[in-house]
Amino acid sequence: MSSSVHEESSDNDQDSLLEFERLESTLPPALKRSASSLLEAIQSTAISTPTSTSESETHDSRIRSPQPQHAKDFFTHATYQMIPGRTANTTPNLKNLNHRQNLINKLSKSENGREASPIPLPRPKFNESIYKPAMNSKQPSTGVLWATERAMEYGYDSENVGDWANLGQGAPEHGDTVPGSFPRPKTINVPDASREYAPTAGIKELREAVANYYNETYRTTKRSKYTYKNVCIVPGGRAGLTRIASIISDCYLSFFLPDYTAYAEMLSLFKNFSPIPVPLKEGDNYEMHLKMIKEELTRGVSALLTSNPRNPTGHCLKPEQLNQLHNMCREKCLLIMDEFYSHYYYDDGCTGSSISSAEYVEDVNYDPVLILNGLTKAFRLPGWRICWILGPEDYISALSSAGSFLDGGSNAPFQYVAVDFLQPQKVRNEMMALQVHFKSKRDYIIRRLSKMGFKFTEKNIPNSTFYLWLNLSHLPGKLSNCLGFFHECLHEKVIVVPGFFFLINPQNLSHLEEAIWYNYVRISYGPEFHHLEKGMDGIERILYRFGCLPYEKK
Length: 554
Description:
alpha/beta, Aspartate Aminotransferase, domain 2, 2 domains, 7-stranded mixed β-sheet, 3-stranded antiparallel β-sheet, 17 helices, 9% strand
């Protein structure tokens, strides 16, 4: 090899490492330790791999080497002890040429088979040279936004996606692409009344339609029925959660990890309650057991927030578990049930049925239960920002008052249009079409990933939502870590969300860093089918380049 070719290869290798370091530099502070752990693990493996072995032997040992799964595993991994003069608390010295070269060998094209493609240094979120009195310029991005920002640095354009596959955005396909679904409106009537401010609790017609839908769908056998006074219309799920956070006070609020990333910002902004994170167990497939909830109630928790079905794992409580949960909490605890995925429910044969806490509320004005849902997911209209909260009249009155100073209420014209959507039989037919379509997409990506060597059982196949919580721990090298996998996906024009963003740590409790999900990414099968194909093809190319595809790629 000529010296010029050798120098060019070395430059590309350096660029590849620098690119990864740039990516790591954009993480929120609490997560940067995750990237450092990845670098440590890669470095440890590199140092323990003899440099004199043949290419085939190196390839074989790389695939078979055990992969650390959590932060504590990185620092107790046997090969780490082989680094002379290092201790478990030492930060990797990336300026040391020997250490740096070992990292380069693991991150560069010599391992993954692609040319290095350095990107511009990510720009600061704000211009640091301009003085901004009293502005918090250090607010980190949420997981989906961070992933999208990084993809944009690689050329992604959300308004012209081209050949990108965005499997990170938590939104369903919104076009007329679901067989059997009613056509989405392309024009709407704007009644004169909609030119006025809508009430902060929403227009009465839509509130009545929501109450009627829940009564006819979940409460036909109950004496207590919802009325419009039990419904508050809100401009999106986040706005609904923010209103709820503003009206609760002087309590411990428990929430379970992993869960919806935007909970973190909501729980960190308000100081009128104390949020208590409860990490779920990987070996238990992150299931939320009733015994765990009982323990939370025993230690004085009087508010509980959870998504059901759950984001990002794609699972939900079974009906009998949901019934027990309500019986446990009825006298002592406010249940805040985020049910935006309640109609993406596949356990009932895709009949259009759904699961909701509304079925287990005994008295709508006594049971302390707040239910959030809306047009965003089930009706595939995220841009309309029309959602609702159901609950006792006293809570709804307080939520309406909060809306007057927090968000001003929902879009009035869209509220009038939404009334017609909520006819119970129309909803049932719509959800049947939705479930058949999205279950077929779920089955497609599980089939593709299974063929690539990912393991699925009845326990970890999602029975709801349109998310897959994908375990990477069997993969070699940097692919076993969510940030490394994300980095390689960007080179294949595929967007996923690293699992550690689903750590909800509103008070930045350092001991929770060990609960970060290093070995998981969330994949959304919300997009249209051709995007799923591109995404699976991209992941297949990554595994092929790393030599860990269990079959010959055609």
